[in-house]
Amino acid sequence: MGARRPPDHLLYIMANLIPAPLHRALLPIAHKVRHRWRKFRKVPIAGVSVVLTNLQGDVLLLRHSYGPKVWALPGGGLKTGEDPEECARREVMEELGIKIAAIQLVGAIEEELSGSPHTAHLFTATCDARPKPDGREVDEARFFPSHSLPEPLGTATRRRLNEWKSRGL
User: Fold this and answer.
1) What would the pLDDT profile of 4-39 be if each residue is shown by its tens digit?
2) Do the domain assignments include residue 4?
3) The domain containing residue 131 runs over which residues?
4) How far apart are alpha carbons 71 and 2 in whole angstroms?
5) What's residue 122's pLDDT?
6) In which region does residue 115 sit, left (phi positive, over 0), alpha (psi from -120 to 50) or beta (all else)?
7) Closest to 154 measured CA to CA, from 70, 50, 64
8) Does 31 fall in a domain?
9) What is the model's pTM?
């Protein structure tokens, strides 16, 4: 018997049945509702971010179709019962179509996100594939030299990249 999928896997499938233009139009609304819900509930949440580099050491950054218009790292929220490493692999595959072979935990960052306590599990990985943005959640994705990152760079992204650099990874 195969591995059991998380219960919200059906939501992912259903979301992909919605035409991409409609999905992209609804994401900013969903982002605002989620932000307000977190501020109201203040329930601890967890997520992942992945510092993904190519063979030349350039860092992959992306722009989401919702939320602040900043460059960010690939990543997302942990599903109930999901292992952080599996979440990191899933998010990179869903957002960019890249399968990660080897991945390394950099550490965990305790912070506040949308008024809720948040644990960000930070990973690093190397790939030799070109990103293929999903056209729904991600507008654009490309590699940048780590010494010449684009602006505006998200505050959380800057903090995570500083943590990654401080570890010499």
Assistant:
1) 444 455 555 556 677 878 776 776 667 577 667 766
2) no
3) 9-166
4) 37
5) 98
6) left
7) 70
8) yes
9) 0.81
What CA–CA distance (Å, rounded) separates 138 from 65? 6
Half-sphere exposure of 139 (CA within 13 A, CB side): 14
Kindly report the three-state secondary structure assignment for every residue of the chain. CCCCCCCCHHHHHHHHHCCHHHHHHHHHHHHHHHHHHHHHHCCCEEEEEEEEECCCCCEEEEEECCCCCCEECCEEECCCCCCHHHHHHHHHHHHHCCCCCCEEEEEEEEEEECCEEEEEEEEEEECCCCCCCCCCCEEEEEEECCCCCCCCECHHHHHHHHHHHHCCC
Residue 106 near residue 95 (C-beta atoms within 8 A): no
Q: Is residue 121 part of a domain?
A: yes
Q: Identify the CATH number of the domain in which residue 122 sits.
A: 3.90.79.10
For residues 14-49, one letter each, b for 16 or more C-beta atoms within 10 angstroms of the residue's C-beta and e for the rest, the string is eeeeeeeeebbeebeeebeeeeeebeeeeeebbbbb
Cis check: omega of the bond before 152, within 30 degrees of 0: yes
Domains of the chain: total: 1
Residue 116 has pLDDT above 90, yes or no: no
